[in-house]
């Protein structure tokens, strides 16, 4: 058991110990955005042929027939073990594309040639992404075997066999479709301690780490120093070959010292530049001191210009407290506002409850007949009372007029009675007229009596009954009585006139 645990631990230690030190090599990498500078150049890289560099990618070939392009590092990488991740897209309108793309690590920088846009007889490694199936027709099984990914190492003596897609020259490979994928293709090529591994991300998902192993080859001997490059070519069919990123890492095996690869001449140049800038800074500092003598103490003791840790903490605490204080103040203000509003509402509610009782009390004092409803307003009550007073006034006037008419009628009746007696005493011949007159007078009296009873009935009606105004008459009562009085006067005048005439006529007989 103890032996097992010991072996397990030693295995873990061994695994941990085997991990190389990884360092990003910016001079052998590019990545968007801002791949190109203003002068269309790519820092640390050079592109040629039909390649076009833009901010987001380098288009090694456009999708036009018979194009060739490539991009290469300016300087040779001198680290033995490395890992590169190439992010690219191969897109075209056809169901079949051509020719393909190659990633290179060669002793010499490539030049334009027949092998995916670069030269043949190279020294070093090539990884081909071969779109077009050149040997598909001649295949014994008549099976298409492209698009295909393969690695080939050349010592400068071999010619790439295009006609059979280099199927017999490969270190290894895998058949994968890398054209027209929703996300960029990723290929991770690792060369570590003479073992070559190619991983492939098919670009079907957005997961950048979704790699699968395509090939692994041992005992691979590559140049100790070389140039990284990407090339591509189109033929009768054409695809866009766009490289979005080329990320290089150097791998240093554990135990091996990381070599200082700083160029001595470059170091001397930077040192000189630093000295120049430092001198300039000191000069400007002195000038500033001369111009601002009031800030002398800051220059004498630069520590004064900075706050120490304790001061900073204290200041932060103070600021925090200040903020809390302000917030509390604001809250207090809000509370006061709320209280004020609450008091206002309470006072209004109490006023309303008092006002609701006062209205019926006032109504009871003033009339007693006004309905004690809150909805009746003061001016409405006044109006009803005024109307009632006017009605009473008018009724009194009518009573006076009727009394007057009655008095006059009595006077006329009396005078008529006296006249009748005189006629009877005078001749006793007017007996034919007197019964008629008496009938008319009786009718008149009868009518008058009816009118009188009506008026009396009207006057005796309870004054405040209901308090509602009477319905408006078609003819006003005063006009009616005046008309009756005039009629009566005319009738009586006519009768007196007729009697006088009859009396005069009797005198002639
Ligand atoms: Ca091919
Ligand atoms: Ca093939």
Structure overview:
- The protein has 7 helices and 17 strands.
- Strands 1, 2, 4, 5, 7, 13, 14, 15 and 17 form a 9-stranded antiparallel sheet that branches. A 7-stranded antiparallel sheet has the order 3-6-16-8-10-11-12, with no helix packed on it.
- The longest helix has 58 residues, at 309-366.
- It has 2 domains: 20-265, Jelly Rolls, CATH 2.60.120; 379-508.
- By secondary structure, the protein is of the alpha+beta class.
- Strand 13 (185-192) and strand 14 (195-201) form a beta hairpin.
- It has helices spanning 2-18, 264-291, 296-300, 309-366, 378-426, 434-460, 477-508, and strands at residues 21-24, 30-31, 45-49, 52-53, 58-61, 68-73, 82-91, 100-106, 112-115, 123-130, 148-155, 172-175, 185-192, 195-201, 212-217, 227-233, 240-252.
Entry summary:
This protein has 509 residues and is α+β, with helices and mostly antiparallel strands. The protein contains seven helices and 17 strands.
